[in-house]
Amino acid sequence: MNRKPLSGFLGLLVFAAAAFGQAPAGNLGGPFRKPAEAVSALKDLAAGFPAVAALEIIGKSAGGREIPVLRLAGGNPAVKTAPGLRPAVLITAGLDGGHVAGTEAALRLAGKLVDGYVKKDGKITALLDARTVYVAPLLNPDGAEAYFGAVRSGRFVNARPVDEDADGAVDEDGFEDLDKNGAITQMRMKDPEGVFIPDPKEPRLLRPADPAKGEKGIYKVFPEGIDNDGDGEYNEDPPGGVQLNRNYPHDFEYFVKTAGLYPASEPETAALLQFMTDHPQIGLVLAFGLENTILNQKQTGQAKAGSDKVKPIRPIAELIGLDPEKEYTLKEIAEAATTSGIGGGMTITEEMVAGFLGVGPAMEIDKADLPFLEAVQKDYKEVLKAAGKEGLEKHARGAGKGSFGGYVYFQYGVPFFSTDLWQVPEPKKEEPADKLTAEKLKAMTAAQFLALGEEKIAVFLKDSGAPPQFNSRAVMEMVESGKLTTIRMAEMMAQMPPRPGAGSEEHPDAYKLQWADAVWGGRGFTNWTPFKHPQLGDVEIGGFCPHFGLNPPADEADAAIGVHVDFYLKIMDNLPVLEISGIKAEPLGGGVYGLTAYVSNTGRWPTSTAQGRRARTAWPIRITLVLDKSQTLFSGRPAEEIPFLDGGETKKVEWTIRAKPGSRVAVKAWSPRLGAVEKTAVVS
Amino acid sequence: MRKFTRIALMAAVVLSAGFAGSGGVPDSAGAEVVLSFDHWYDNAAIGRALRDLQAAYPGLITVQSIGKSVLGRDIWAAVLNNPKTGPAERKPGYYIDGNIHGNEIQGGEVALYTVYYLLKNHGRTEFATDVLDRVAFYVVPSMNPDSRDFYIHEASDPNSPRTGWIPRDDDRDGVADEDGPEDLNGDGSITTMRKRDPNGRLRAHPDDPRLMIPVKPGQKGEWTLLGEEGIDNDGDGLINEDGPGGYDMNRNFGYNWQPEYVQGGAGPYPFSWPETRAVRDFILAHPNIMGAQSFHNNGGMILRGPGAGNLGDYNPADVRVYDEIGRRGEKILPGYKYIIIAKDLYTVYGGTVDFLYASLGAFTFSNELDLDLVEEIRLQKPENADEEERSRSFFRGLSKEDMILHDQVFMGEHYAPWKPYVHPVYGEIEIGGVKKFGERVPPLFKLAETCHRNAAFVLYHASEMPAVAFEDLSVKTLDGGLFQVDFAVTDAKATPTMSAQAASRKLHRPDRIRIGGPTAELVAVGEMRDRFLNETRAIKPAGQAFDVSGGIPGRGRREFRILVKGSGPLTLSYDSLKGGSAETTVELKLAAGGGLPFKRASGRA
Fold first, then answer.
1. Which A-chain residues 76-105 have CB contacts (< 8 A) with chain B?
2. Could you tell me the pTM of the whole model?
């Protein structure tokens, strides 16, 4: 029987496991609730505090488990807008099944809001009277259930049977817990075709052999298990499933089995998308997940940037009077098309133009949105620093292909923030005090540099990967003669790629192992132990345990969750607030009045994101003038639109009416994400 | 008599009289069902016709409702299979749908005609018998019954309703579907409003005042076009800005789906509507579907994907298959052009055509039914060759040729002359224009030809679904009780047993050859690389079977050599998800005095 190494997704899983780390086998500790307990907790809140909390089951997972959403809305009778129509915020968690700390954080946030409302906390009462908060803490119940299973594999997938190896049999070759420790780890086997070697500094960790350094591979690595279907592959088609955080429609990756057959193929995804479609009041999504998009705004989609300008195709260009060789914004093309009359009097919208011309989707964060995103990042970094948690930044994961966050920002068109709560802390690297860095070099004079001496300069050149002809004598002569300056050297140093093998290279996961040893008493990693495999013969079983590093240990969970719950509550302070700040009625004579309504956004953030406007999912602000029977509109439309308002911005809308002095007019301003406000004025 | 009219007349006579039969005893039950294709079937009539056919041909057709539309109508589907030649799942499947756009109704009649034709002629003509014996059919005549019925029974126009019936707030005013068109003059169609306007951009055509042409700089205007018939229902200063629905179900499918700002009408996410979900589930329930057709109107095209250019063209090996069928289609449907959607037409993200091919590996065409009849008139020598007078523009600018069609061919049935009307907002206006059946759907005298020719194309495509067979079997006795069995597997038809798309993207399971027999044991398998040098490429068997990766190419042949132990009858069976199946048996005789090769000609499903 052939012995085949890791292939396809399983290979990625092992690397991902090695890169991101996995949790220890057996009892992980931690105050994390199982799916059924999470649902019960929400049911208890709804049953116990019906004035503020209501529970809705928005769908069922592929495995038939409930997906709950808790609606929190104040019951203040003075607030006229029904809870379902107030501007809303959506809190999500649990999409990456094993990130149970996220579910816990969402539950605690819900609890904190209910508690605050019941105890009449000023801020929380004001929040829940003005806005509705939806909390969806368990978006991947199948994946979460797997976290608490007797044997854990670390997969995030739902329970849908997927024929991952396209052989016609579904889920026929899953993992086996051969060493009966409750965790699926790895098997390594000595093989002439092996590519892995133990890391010289941390032999428990494997890394690929580097032929350039004269290294020869020793091991093949497989996930723990046997070849159930006798096809020579090991565990290539385990039970399940689709990774739900890859199943969303933005930048969806086709032909990857675990992303789903098509976007929203999974009942969990469709349920959430339908919920968000049915609640267009949602103006902000705050997530607890494995991504930390506040720190890492990198979009891992295709690199092509969405262009603002396109060339209209020749037949269209000629018809509407544009130059087919020039580029125009969609707005310009739409305007030209409308005035040309090709629509027969119909208004041609940018949407129609984009659809007809086949202009593609946006793939990069809109420049106009960067300022407020960066402001949040700045706030967040300060909060983390104050709490001593700056370590989150180094390994922060950005949004991936088909991710929920990508959908929310690029298609649903509202701000999206995700935090991962905790990472395995990486100890600070101690730089030797006299180590020469590019920064130090820049600040040195030639004399100071030469004063270092030949030996130190030689070490510096070696460390920074200088080519061999740059020996210290040659370099010193060049600096002496003025041919080479320290600034120029610093520039060259910055541009050098790190020399392979230079310096002391640690395995990228070594710090995780050190933490597991020092702080977690050795849990988190199964040491390589020989095992007699029925098919492969002599192997060793070991490796990071599933889910290692995803969730904080019990004694750190409260602090990690607490900091982030508070930060999310603070973010909500930024939300836009719609106001009609004034109505002016200016008599023009003869019973004719010029009306001006001043519409303001008194919040910090703009009323919509630039991407939301590009995606046409952002709503303009609709300003309606309500006249009584005795009044007539002379100029202006009964309903006007303001596309958006920046934070703190005021815009005016003007009408001219004929009215009797002393009569009243009303102005309403509304958009689903901002709610409705109304103001009346007396015409005099 | 014009050639086209003659054919149509013959077709109508033949069809309405029932088939006279070209041999074989007429099925007495079948003779009771007579369908004519000189009128429009609404959704209930489609359901009745299918159920009547089911009663008349109980073994061959099963009718089911695959789901409910938004307004609760049944989405009717029919499965056609001849159980005497095997279960449907083991045959290549052919899927047909029509009328996903509610106003594009003739696809419903064409699909119904295809079903009717097959049932009527199975057992009578060799062609129909062969196709229905070898291929299983999955037919959904109307994917959008709500809009179909509205188009037929209510006041509409040639282009609408295209949408489904979930309310959508098109003008973003907080209310959905509050301002659609109205049939102000009660003539059963939504036509156009115009107002006399000395500053208008249009003026009357000098030869026919019913027509309007653009004003030249310096010329005096006469008319302003106001748009479709309707009033400002919600008092917001706009007319007909938020009618029923407002989306496009043929942008809601799962491959290369894009959000609405990239692809208008696509909906919030793939398969977000009951009709698209019902059809998706029906298609996914039949993974043997290998060929497909989605009927649309109009223009006379045989379309293939890709619908958009961002993911590249289809696999070249598959393109060759498409080209063969498409080009022959141009001869079956004279005037229709075989073209590529993204390259030659416009961009379509998330259409049925791409989902069926790219995600599922089935060869899918989409026919835009019916040529523009006015072109026939244009091809004749023009009475007045003045280019400018012909003013074909994008807005409903009718030309003189159009009026010949309406006046003399349709004899006014589909044209409403301009008549005065007093409008609540615009005051004195005129209402008139082409009525709902006057464009894009064929006039009823042409319907039967549209049905027959497109059914013929679809059945031709279906007849080119894979047909696998074992050929050239030979058995050689080796030492130690071992037999060497050589055989070839062929596909006689243009379509491979597995598309290159499915093979390269691993969309579904590979084809499999399995041996069977009381004592048979598969020892080794090789594919013949060079028969003369006896070179084989090793294939790893899995138990008593092995995979044929990539399947059998269209009109192709692959040769295999297997080593087996055992004796007695040895069955070889070919099992393909979409390519059908075949079986054959050879005898393994333990030689008394040396093994003589035993040749067996062929075996087929």
1. none
2. 0.86
